[in-house]
Write a structure and sequence with these properties.
Layout lengths: L8 H14 L12 H8 L3 H13 L3 E4 L3 E4 L11
Antiparallel strand pairs: 1-2
Helix pairs in contact: 1-3, 2-3
Length: 83
């Protein structure tokens, strides 16, 4: 990955994972890569990888199952069309 020096690396990795969620690479309910896998793929520190996963959870795109992993959050339910 070519890094943009003016943008924090965690934000750049976050953007990649966010895009993968949006395009279905990681479907709702699917497991996201672990912090160690993110470290290996992007060549970042474990602290930075954990920050990416934390920010995905904060944004509502992911949730954590303690001891199991981090998963893509379910899609929001469409509004009811009852008349």
């Amino acid at each position: 990955m070519k890094w943009e020096p003016e943008v924090p690396r965690w934000r750049q990795v976050y953007a990649v994972l966010e895009e993968r969620v949006a395009d279905g690479t990681y479907p709702p309910g699917g497991r996201l890569p672990s912090a160690m896998a993110i470290c290996g793929e992007f060549g970042i520190s474990q602290v930075t990888a954990k920050r990416v996963l934390t920010e995905l959870r904060k944004s509502g795109l992911a949730y954590m199952e303690p001891g199991i992993g981090t998963f893509v959050a379910p899609l929001p339910e469409p509004p009811s069309r009852d008349s």
